[in-house]
Structures are given as structure tokens and as C-alpha cells.
Amino acid sequence: MITIKDHYPVIDQTIQQVKDRFGSDSKIAVMFENCISNTLQTTIKVLDDGSIFVITGDIPAMWLRDSACQLRPFLFFAKEDPEIADIINGLIQKQMQCIQIDPYANAFNECANGNCWEHDKTDMKPELWERKFEIDSLCFPVQLSYLFWKNTGYTAHFTMDWLKSAKTIISVFRTEQDHEHKSPYTFERMNCVPTDTLSRNGKGALVKSNIGLIWSGFRPSDDSCTYGYLIPSNMLASVILENISEIAEQIYHDSVLAAEAHQFSSDLRKAIESLSIVPGQSKEFYAYEIDGFGEYNIMDDANLPSLLSLPYIGYCDRKDGRYLNTREIILSDRNPYYYAVACAKGIGSPHTPARYIWHIGLAMQALTTTSAKEREQLLDTLTHTDAGTDLMHEAFLVDDPAQYTRPWFSWANSVFCELILDCCGYHLEM
Q1: Maximum distance among all alpha carbons in the chain?
Q2: Which residues contact 370 (CB under 8 A, 6 or more apart)?
Q3: Among 42, 52, 233, 264, which is most exposed with the fewest C-beta within 10 angstroms?
Q4: Structure confidence by residue, pLDDT tens digits, 212-264
Q5: Domains of the chain, with CATH numbers?
Q6: Are 193 and 169 in contact (CB under 8 A)?
């Protein structure tokens, strides 16, 4: 039976490495120790079947995306510590169970207890906390599975349930390429802000069907899409479809599934590269969302996947020309959710109030930069905007970091930890 311990030697050794790199009494070292411990000690629960349930922090539910990102830094420790490997394996087991319960849901309860965020008009089940369809909810568990294998050699998580879930994901993606005519999914929330529901009786804003892209009802922020083709999430989908292809070939020896996933990935990437470039610009850069009819949303959101995160999710290199052009746009006032004052500047989200910068966005900017100076400046911002808590938050007011949202937000803690590990020479094989 898996048990969550107070200390793991490999993590303690890494904490010491961080202290050696930045100074034992440095703010960065203190924050790293607190953040890595916070995720491990406060958000992980072992269930009776041996699977692992990971809450976001201050919300008692498990998001498929968040939980994968929360445990991603622990991939660095799993190769040396079988107990940590068992925790990641247990999470993947639970995630695949969730996908089989409902591949359109984004957040799940520990059991079929009927808890939920709201009583929404959609096909709810007692296991679901929320049923907002977000492409990335299906992507991150696959990527975690792939990275777990590639960086540790561990394969026990590749069960028949995993294979069934992978096929389910492909099936849902195929359906949502023609959302208008083939999809069974609708979602409506009553008496709420417009971004918490879908228009047209729950169908969402109209998109052009069968252009090669996958429709998403909601962004990784859980806000509804303005235009239904969310480009960063389609990019992540193209990455994980290639992951499925490699896993099918090498682990399951299923050449048919491997070929199908590879072709899907290739076709999706071609559609992204031909359809998501904003026209009429001096430099080519990606839109955040499109509808296929000629509308483009020029912005970025700090939630992952984002346009800023493309190298992090494995879509392109940090020096890729279109990525660098896009980065220049989204880290400027052309992105309506980019805020800059003397003490801080970074990307926020329409999910939080105006002028609130996200710690995840700052950490991601540092993880994807090619500039040592930019990274140093971002580290300084991260360590001076924690409001004295020695932990990351969801977002802070750019004019006053003492005002912040979600003091217990494990996803932000984990991305910060991954940044510090990257500074210390830890890099995942993608």
C-alpha cells in the first residue's frame, strides 16, 4: 500500500542542491522547499484501490490537467525512488479511470459522492465535480504517462485501461473535429457570468467544421472559448497524439493504432500551421483562438497550455521563429492580459480580475526564455511577489502583490519548483 511520507531522501538531497546553488538562506531555497513539500504533503490522497487522488489545493476536487502538472516535478525523483514512482503510477491509474467515466469532464470527485461546483445543464454524473470540455484535460494525463516512461523506464502504468482511454481520447478528438454535426456535448450554467457557460443552448459559438482542428468548449482557465478552436490546446493534442503513437508501437505493439495516431498528429499540425497564423502581419505569429471563418483572437492566458508554453509542452523549440514572433506579441500590450508596471510585469488571465499577474505565467516565461538576464529578472519577481508566504499563488495585483488570489494553489507551486529544478540542471526528456 502506498503511503505519503514526510521525507524522501532523493527530495531532501535535491533541496540541498537548491540551497547549494542559490544559498541555504536564500528566498528561492526557502520557497522551493515549501512549495515542493506543500504539493506532496497537502494535496495527495491514497485511495482504497491504490490509486492517487490529487486535489488542486483549496478546492476539494481533482482536475485532470492540474493533477498532472502538480506531480510533473516529481518525475525527476521517480527514477531513484520507487515509492515516488508508485505515487505517479497511482495518479495515472486514477486519471484513466476518470477518462472512462466521462472524457468530456474536466474535474472529478474522489468518489461518486455527487459533489459539484454547480448543478449544470449537461450530462452530469455523481463522480463529476465539473463537466467543462477542455482539450487539454485529455492531453495532460497522456503526456504525464509518456514523460514518466521516457524519464524513468517505468511501464507498469501502461495497462489495458490505459490503452482503452487512449482510444477514447482519439475518438473524442475525431468527433470534436465536427462539433457542430457530430458532438453529443452541450453545457449550460444558469445565472452566471458569460464565460462560465456556452451559447446557442450549450453548443458554443459557431465554428467552421472539418477544417482539421479540434473544438474545445473551454480554455484551461475553465472559461469558455471566444472562438472554438483553441490553438495552444490543439498544439498539445498534436504532441500527445504522437506520444500515443510511440507508446502504441513500442509498448502495446499495436501498429494500427500507432499509424492512426501518427497520421492524426501530422494532419493536426498541418492544420495548425496553415490556419492559425494571423494574416496581414509583418511577422508570422499564432492566434490564441480562431473560428475557421476568419476570426482570430490575439491574446494569451497564463493557464497551461498557453502560447507562451509551446516549448514546454513539446510543440516547438524555444528558438523557433514563429514561436519567438508570438512570444514578442503576447509579452506586449497587444495581449490584453499582459500587465506591466515598475515592480512587476507578466501575463494574467480573464479568469481573474484585471491587472492580476499569474505566477504560473511568470514561471513559464522563465522556463521558455533563451535569455539568462530575463530569467534572473523573473526569478526576482517571483520571489518578491509571494506576499511573505514563501508559496506561490494563483495571481497577484500588479500594483500591490500583497493582494492575491488562492493562497493554496498547488499547480503554481509545482511550476515554480520545475523552474528551480531547471535552473539546477534538471531537464525532462520529451
Answers
A1: 59
A2: 318, 319
A3: 42
A4: 999 999 999 999 999 999 999 999 999 999 999 999 999 999 999 999 999 99
A5: 1-42+337-424 (no CATH), 44-333 (1.50.10.10)
A6: no
